[in-house]
What we know:
mainly alpha, elongated
Amino acid sequence: MSIVEPRPMRRWSPIAIALAAAGAGAAGEPRLSSYLVLAAVPVTAVVALAAFGELLDTRAVAPVEPVAALETLLLGVALLLLVAGAAAGATAFAVSGCLAVFGVQALLGLSVELRRPALER
Length: 121
């Protein structure tokens, strides 16, 4: 059984759409921001499901780092915020909550990188 390589561009796409929605909202384009939030829902769902599948595949082979499980959970929270915000018509809520979750993910990834030992030359 082979381990699936993560696709970094796939992980960045929900962040890019959320940032574009935040930019559209800040530029005074609430309709475009709303459409971008609606577009972010299926993209984030695909990324969250793919991350969950990778987590399950990895777990079948070896023990999983808690960080990987937490990142998958955070993607699910971001999806929940996007769906709730899109359903309620609260674009600002959806975008700000989603960006906060992605910020926590970035800090989590940074902490993992800082804990890794430096490669010897």
